[in-house]
Amino acid sequence: MTDIDIIRDNVHELERLAQLAEEAAELAQAALKLRRVYKSTGNPTPVTLQGAYQNLLEELADVKVCLAVLNLDASGTQWRVDQLAEEKLQRWAERLRPIETEA
After folding, report:
1. pLDDT at 101 > cutoff 60
2. HEC assignment per residue over the chain
3. pTM score of the predicted model
4. CA distance 97 to 22
5. How does pLDDT run across 10-45, given as a tens digit for each residue?
């Protein structure tokens, strides 16, 4: 029995979803903390760049674990997530391209 199986057998799916939400919120906080370290004006933090970056990686790992126990990292699901990510990447880049005016 794998670690994932043990978790799936002992933690209800609703609780696994709650754990994903919690870890996603912590990931958001870690990203904001890293931003504060980079910006270092207005609201300084004692956290170092290395510490903030390490915390971001740990929170990313926590989210990845949650995705695995929810089976959201399965190949079929991952293919669709990758497809959606590509579409979102294109939309983001499109918003940043200069607007061409008619001459």
Report:
1. no
2. CCHHHHHHHHCCHHHHHHHHHHHHHHHHHHHHHHHHHHHCCCCCCCCCHHHHHHHHHHHHHHHHHHHHHCCCCCHHHHHHHHHHHHHHHHHHHHHHCCCCCCC
3. 0.86
4. 35
5. 999 999 999 999 999 999 999 999 999 998 777 888
